User: Which sequence fits this backbone?
């Protein structure tokens, strides 16, 4: 009897844990953001703005978050950034201009990636874009 109760409680707790881990889809910050996903530590999305405006929004967000810029590589249709945060974690941004003049952004916080921090940065970038009327 004791064993059966323990097994049923264990099954209930493990199923709740599994379900809480599976519920990771969040709504988009606004209509400007689409196709969000978190894969292998990188958080990516499509922004409804061109590369120039997205670049300005990323730099404004980094300044607002007090990130220290280490590297910025500008190329013809993509930009790569490396920042450091207060805790000495690296924050990576990569932005590509898509064929339809939108921006595909990829954010990675730390070595392994932090989904919540990446989402917060994406929301802040989207807020910067909306504040500038983009």
Assistant:
């Amino acid at each position: 009897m004791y064993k059966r109760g323990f097994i049923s409680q264990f099954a209930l707790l493990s199923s709740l844990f599994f379900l809480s881990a599976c519920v990771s889809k969040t709504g988009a910050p606004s209509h400007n953001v689409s196709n969000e996903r978190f894969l292998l530590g990188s958080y990516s999305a499509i922004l409804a703005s061109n590369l120039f405006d997205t670049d300005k929004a990323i730099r404004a967000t980094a300044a607002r978050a007090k990130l220290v810029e280490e590297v910025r590589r500008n190329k013809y249709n993509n930009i790569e950034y490396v920042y450091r945060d207060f805790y000495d974690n690296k924050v990576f941004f990569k932005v590509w201009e898509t064929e339809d003049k939108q921006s595909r952004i990829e954010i990675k916080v730390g070595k392994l990636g932090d989904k919540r921090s990446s989402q917060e940065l994406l929301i802040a970038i989207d807020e910067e874009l909306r504040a500038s009327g983009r």
The chain has a mean pLDDT of 81. The first strand starts at residue 33 and ends at 39.
